[in-house]
Amino acid sequence: MLALAFLTALAADAAPERPDDAYQPVRSPDPITLTVPEIRHLLGSVFDSPAVTVARLLHWSNWRRRHQATARRSHYRRRAAGEPAG
Length: 86
Prior knowledge:
By secondary structure, this protein is an all-alpha fold.
């Protein structure tokens, strides 16, 4: 429980302030903010497995968050167009 609280506080601290425009993340090409599972994965990889370099780990994290941002934009675009999900 303490570890989860620590990761949640870390994620909240890393998150930028929310813009006034609620739809700004949909239009932004930036990756999503760090989430608790992402921080947990990064910390676990750093402390557990020396086989992965830090540069490669950060590259993977950046790619993953950009991919999630693209998926989020596509999801919102499809829902705004009224297409059925599936």
